[in-house]
Design brief:
Layout lengths: L3 E4 L2 E3 L5 E7 L8 E7 L6 E7 L4 E3 L7 E6 L4 E6 L8 E9 L4 E4 L3 E5 L2
Parallel strand pairs: 2-11
Antiparallel strand pairs: 1-3, 3-8, 4-5, 4-9, 5-6, 7-8, 9-10, 9-11
Length: 117
């Protein structure tokens, strides 16, 4: 079992930057995939970025060149640095973890990011 807790959301102006963080209840060293998804109002949850245990990132097209995902296995954290934010980046950002052994998916409760002037 893994508990995920997000932090760092808030209100930011278009073009600004924000970093959201995810802390976990146990070591993430053995967690195969960690990442971030988001859900905009009235829309389905969508992938933002994931990162493997070895540190290989994967980004949705919407965030390529603007978002960077960081994984720190020693601190048990996964951060998402978001630059050049747009109003369409607004949504609840959820931390995600997946273990291949047992096929378990874990989700945090989310943190709200609002991009608006």
């Amino acid at each position: 079992q893994v508990q995920l807790v997000e932090s760092g959301g808030g209100l930011v102006q278009p073009g600004g930057s924000l970093r959201v963080s995810c802390t976990t209840s146990r070591s993430i060293f053995s967690i195969d995939i960690m990442g971030w998804y988001r859900q905009a109002p009235g829309k389905q949850r969508e992938l933002v970025a994931t990162i493997t245990r070895s540190g290989s990132p994967n980004y949705a097209d919407s965030g390529k060149g603007r978002f960077t995902i960081f994984r720190d296995n020693a601190k048990n954290t996964v951060d998402l640095q978001m630059n050049s934010l747009k109003p369409e980046d607004t949504g609840i950002y959820y931390c995600y973890a997946k273990t291949y052994v047992g096929g378990m998916d874990y989700w945090g409760k989310g943190t709200l990011v609002t991009v608006s002037s």
